Amino acid sequence: MKTSRLISLFFQGNLVKRIAIGLVLGIVVALVTPILEPSLGFNLASEVGVLGQIFVRSLRAVAPLLIFVLVMAAIANKKVGTQTSMKSIIVLYLLGTFLAALVAVIASFLFPVEVALSVKEDIASAPKGVGTVLLDLVFNVVDNPLNAIFKANFIGVLAWSIGLGLALRHASDTTKNVVSDFSEAVSKIVYVIITFAPIGVFGLVAQTLADKGLVALGSYAQLLSVLIGAMLFVAFIVNPILVFWKIRRNPYPLVWTCLRESGLTAFFTRSSAANIPVNINLAKRLNLDEETYSVSIPLGATINMAGAAITITILTLAAANTLGIEVSFTSAILLSIVASLCACGASGVAGGSLLLIPLACSLFGISDDVAAQMIGVGFIIGILQDSTETALNSSTDVLFTAAACIADENKKTAA
Question: Which pLDDT belongs to residue 76?
Fold first, then answer.
């Protein structure tokens, strides 16, 4: 009987509450590990950290296939003449990213930060110029579809799923039903994986806090405060204004729902791609248009770059401040726009935005050596910076999708 109740508690109930329990237990394990390690003979936090790694790997493994089948099924089964909210959503994505970059520039000018550049990192894999980044983007689009799925090339996955979806619109109803059934089957697998989120969060928190701790963040507290402050400003001020502009009512209930149920899991997985199943599940529970969210949420994971724009802009301007380089306000805005546009796809990988710092620094003549050191700084503060960035990026995907869908529904009701 007790076992049955325990299983029921684990698989049912509010997911956010269960994740919160996993979070607290992870913190407890991280705190007691140094005390218990001499008697146990092993690092408890590292051992349970495997649970978090398995959870994140599971999400990342299923995410490319989920995107592929969902987008393909949504486009293939779209009825001719039906209207979706995609245009409004894309406008919100681009406008939100630009405003986030603007907030980052203002924050950097109001609270200029200088850092001790002493960390050495290898940036051999970082892009060297805008042309290289754009060429890589084109190569990703024309990648082999199987290779794109295997390597989680989300730009390629989106391109092929859209192409096949358009082609299958001319297929028979039987074929379309098979595609829809396959999409539903993959979605059910994702649901099972998400059920284990509390255990995954437990492992991730325990291992991260045990390995890094918060002491390492001390010397970079000011930089971290500016970064997180800008992201929180976007999450709680800028985004609600954009949502209110669309739905014309109090935006905060929707904002809180998206941050609590999407942002929380994204904070710990640190991957927009891994959080796609969570966002799709939330969109379904919000009763949004499936034809819209099955396309907009995967698309948002690759082009909705508010958090990345903030990170790239603030870290680059911090490097400029440290070197005594005078940066005009106009040049700073240009920096954030160019860096954000070239960062398409970077949000799908934990810490991906950091690799765009050398590109952004090159706009001001900052050497690769200094840019590499800024990447090192980014890795040090990444325990909170990258988690907060991903939470903002991913929760905004479903927030803007919901806002656009609600706005269109309001128009239909008014008509």
Answer: 83
Q: Which amino acid appears at position 174 of this protein?
A: T
Q: What is the pLDDT of residue 230?
A: 95
Give pairs for 188-194: CB < 8 Å, separation 24+: 189/62, 190/62, 190/66, 190/277, 190/280, 190/281, 191/281, 193/55, 193/58, 193/59, 193/62, 193/277, 194/15, 194/277, 194/278, 194/281
Nearest-angstrom CA–CA distance, 207 and 188: 29
Residue 14 is predicted with a pLDDT of 65
What pLDDT is stored for residue 218 in this prediction?
54
Residue 24 is predicted with a pLDDT of 84
- For 325, phi and psi rounded to 5 degrees? -85, 130
- Residue 214 has a pLDDT of 54
In the three-class reduction of DSSP (H, G, I as helix; E, B as strand; rest coil), residue 345 is classed as: coil
SS3 233: helix
Q: What is the pLDDT of residue 302?
A: 74
- 287/79 Cα distance (integer angstroms): 19
Q: What pLDDT was estimated at residue 256?
A: 95
Select from 272, 260, 283 the least CA-distant residue to 56: 272
Number of H helices and E strands in the chain, helices first, is 20, 0
**C-alpha neighbours within 13 Å on the C-beta side of residue 60:** 18
- Residues 277 and 190: their CA atoms lie apart, in Å, by 6
**Which residues in the chain come in under a pLDDT of 50?**
1, 118-128, 216-217, 345, 347-350
Element (H, E) at 154: helix 154-168
3-state secondary structure of 170: coil
The whole-angstrom separation of Cα 198 and Cα 195 is: 8
